[in-house]
Write a structure and sequence with these properties.
Elements lengths: L2 E3 L6 E3 L38 H6 L7 E3 L7 E5 L9 E8 L17 E5 L2 E9 L5 E9 L5 E8 L10 H14 L3
Antiparallel strand pairs: 1-2, 3-4, 4-5, 5-9, 6-7, 7-8, 8-9
């Protein structure tokens, strides 16, 4: 199984399907998760909780997510698509962040392709990536959270040199909108 990092996105792309096991969090450190809406701190040990089983079915994601939690890693969750066609497969990564998007002029090294948008009424920065063949490759978004901080969500199509014809940013915005509605 090959794992390739997509330039500038911070998300990995699997070139072939692989079994992904849901990681359980240590019960001694992980407090129970209350119902949404959540703060980002609430998701520290539960990053995969931002999408429920209905969301996974709607966005065609494998329910066996890969969670990363402290103390070894920063909180994050990755899902892989279960679509059968190569042109449709993708993976996504959600990660809470401490960065504040209130003053976008303070961001280091903005990409020329970045766009300021609003998702669920919150400030966001969308960053599409076009692959060398001129087609859609990946899309990432950082979205402000009302209680402070932001979250990162990246969607990447399989491969690194060739893109897809479907709108990767539309899928990213759709998923980010669902997540944003569950955060306070």
């Amino acid at each position: 199984m090959a794992v390739v990092a997509t330039a500038g996105c911070g998300i990995g792309v699997r070139s072939e399907p692989a079994a992904v096991t849901k990681v359980s969090t240590p019960s001694s450190q992980a407090p129970a998760l209350a119902p949404p809406p959540w703060t980002l701190a609430d998701l520290t040990y539960h990053p995969c909780s931002v999408l429920d089983s209905e969301d996974l079915a709607r966005f065609v994601l494998d329910p066996a997510a890969r969670a990363e939690t402290p103390p070894q890693d920063l909180p994050a969750c990755s899902w892989f698509s279960i679509q059968t066609s190569l042109s449709g497969s993708f993976n996504i990564r959600f990660a809470p962040a401490k960065s504040d998007l209130s003053d976008l002029s303070q961001r280091r090294m903005p990409k020329p392709s970045e766009q300021q948008i609003a998702i669920a009424g919150q400030r966001a920065v969308l960053s599409p990536e076009i692959r060398p063949d001129g087609r859609n490759g990946s899309c990432s978004v950082s979205v402000s959270v009302p209680s402070g901080g932001s979250f990162y969500l990246g969607t990447a199509a399989a491969g690194i040199k060739t893109g897809v014809d479907w709108d990767v940013c539309a899928k990213t915005i759709g998923i980010a909108t669902v997540i944003s509605a569950r955060l306070r």
